[in-house]
Amino acid sequence: MSRLWKKYNYVMILAGLTLVFGFFMIGSLRDPSPHYIKISVTEGDTLWNIAGQYAEKGKMSREAFISWVERHNDIDGNMIKAGEKIVIPIEKNEFSDDNRELAMKSQRETKK
User: Fold this and answer.
1) How many CB atoms lie within 10 A of CB 18?
2) Using CA atoms, how far apart are residues 111 and 19, in angstroms rounded to an integer?
3) Which residue among 23, 50, 84, 93 has its CA within the 20 to 30 Å range from the CA of 7?
4) DSSP 3-state assignment of 107?
């Protein structure tokens, strides 16, 4: 065994590092969409407008929000089209809580 190690140690080390790197890469390629909300782009929407609506909820600047959206949706140069679905950096739990608050507020207003 020691002769085998002496003769092929660099190959075994390289194979081990390749496996570790491969597992790391697979873990980093996970789709972010299960944790974040997806929105549908409507006619006239721009990333700047969408960032204005949602960036504060994600505790980001507009520029950081747009950069995140472009990177995670493979968007090049702010080009989005109506009907396209994009993932935005707002966690599903945060968004649903905000919607519940808005729904409760509108119900209270209609009762008055």
Assistant:
1) 10
2) 62
3) 23
4) helix
pLDDT value at residue 58: 80
- In this predicted structure, the answer to whether residue 67 has a pLDDT above a threshold of 90 is yes
E strand residue ranges, 22-111: 36-40, 85-91
> What is the mean pLDDT of the segment spanning 9-24?
87
Q: How far apart are CA 91 and CA 75, in angstroms?
A: 20
What is the architecture of the domain spanning 32-91? Roll (3.10)
Residue 104 in 3-state DSSP? helix
Question: The tokens of 38 are what?
Answer: 């997806």
Report in angstroms the alpha-carbon separations of 77 from 65, 70, 72.
14, 8, 13
Give domain limits for the chain.
1-30, 32-91
Name the pLDDT band for 29 (thresholds 50, 70, 90).
Answer: low
Per-residue pLDDT for 92 more than 90? no
As a whole number, mean pLDDT of residues 50-64 equals 90
